[in-house]
């Protein structure tokens, strides 16, 4: 069994910045040489998430709107009251989506749908340099 690790970073802007990671993850899979297995994509931290979406402006705008309705910026968050950093909403948003995603690898390729991309969602209220870890197993 092969276990291969790749890491890369993405600079982000405040308040729901969404980045397409698909090419980077596919490159890690290709570099790994794994033909059948899984790719785990993970971002450390409690204010960002990994998910999939059709990465086009309409769907991205819809996702941002839905996330804002679930955990709006103007609501009261006990986290803010305790820490005073104003990013309580970002912790809730990240918890709803989760920090990782596992994608099957079939014949050396990510088994994604035609219009499905892997994305990083950074919800923090300040710019960040997000680390993404890809672990390929097969």
Question: How would you characterize this protein structure?
Answer:
With 138 residues, this protein is an alpha+beta fold. The protein has a single domain (3-137), classed as YjbQ-like (Jelly Rolls, Sandwich), CATH 2.60.120. 30% of the residues lie in helices and 38% in strands. The protein has helices spanning 22-32, 57-70, 78-83, 88-97, and strands at residues 3-12, 17-20, 36-42, 48-53, 100-106, 109-110, 117-122, 128-137. The strands form two sheets. It has a five-stranded antiparallel beta sheet with strand order 1-8-3-5-6, covered by helices on one side. It has a three-stranded antiparallel beta sheet with strand order 2-7-4. The radius of gyration is 16 Å and the shape is elongated.
Key terms:
three-stranded antiparallel β-sheet, 138 residues, five-stranded antiparallel β-sheet, alpha+beta, Jelly Rolls, 8 strands, single chain
What are the SSEs and their pairings?
Elements: E1 3-12, E2 17-20, H1 22-32, E3 36-42, E4 48-53, H2 57-70, H3 78-83, H4 88-97, E5 100-106, E6 109-110, E7 117-122, E8 128-137
Antiparallel strand pairs: 1-8, 2-7, 3-5, 3-8, 4-7, 5-6
């Amino acid at each position: 069994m092969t276990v291969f690790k790749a890491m890369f970073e993405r600079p982000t802007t405040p308040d729901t910045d969404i980045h397409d990671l698909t090419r980077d993850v596919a490159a890690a899979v290709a570099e790994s040489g794994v033909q059948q297995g899984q790719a785990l994509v993970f971002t450390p931290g409690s204010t960002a998430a990994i998910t999939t979406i059709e990465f086009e402006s309409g769907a991205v705008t819809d996702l941002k709107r839905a996330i804002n309705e679930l955990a709006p910026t103007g609501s009261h968050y006990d986290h803010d009251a305790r820490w005073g950093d104003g990013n309580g909403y970002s912790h809730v948003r990240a918890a709803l989506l989760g920090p990782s995603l596992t994608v099957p690898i079939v014949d050396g390729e990510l088994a994604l749908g035609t219009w499905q991309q892997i994305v990083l969602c950074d919800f923090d209220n300040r710019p960040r340099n997000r680390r993404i870890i890809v672990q390929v197993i097969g």
